[in-house]
Amino acid sequence: MMPHLSIPAFSTPLMDSVDKISTIPGAMQVLRKACTQYGFRHFVVISLPHAVFQSAPSLAQLSIISSWPPELTAEYDRLQLASDSPILNELQNQISPVLIDLLKLNQGVPSQKHKAASALFSRYELTMGVSFPNRDAENLRYAVCFLGDRGVLSDDELSSLGMFSTLLIEHISRIFSDAKGKKSLLNAREIEILQWTAEGK
Length: 201
Known about the structure:
Number of strands: 5
Order of helices and strands: HHEHEHHEHHEEHH
Strand content: 15-25%
């Protein structure tokens, strides 16, 4: 039997907040704290399909929780930027953090979609960021993404945010798993009987 590998604990107020997450709104509050602490403007947690992004779904479909302005998400999806996105493709193919730098994205001869993405994110002062790909206990894939206009992250910041993201996905996955379990407490026949009882039958 393989020994259980535990992740070393970082006793910081932010990490302590992650350990107390029990709801999705609670996860959002902790993500807002992380953005404030690390100088980011917005976050989004997305689910990553197993297939490579060819005809990718919209960001609205991929997002689990997000602080993006609704107008930004709507414009992103209207321009179909999830399709052929270099960031999403990288998240599909690696386990290390994916750094986002709009200036580097536009080096060389950028595609029309790259130009559109750059213009859109610049409008919201989102010029750099980082995404952390993660897997939960059921091997479902996620990414925790932060965007803003701050400077380059230090190695220590990358390490701490990576640890934070891993723990966050553990808790979010547990919330979804618990919700799924509660939904399946009654079988279809039992639910039907309850509906009849409520109708006085």
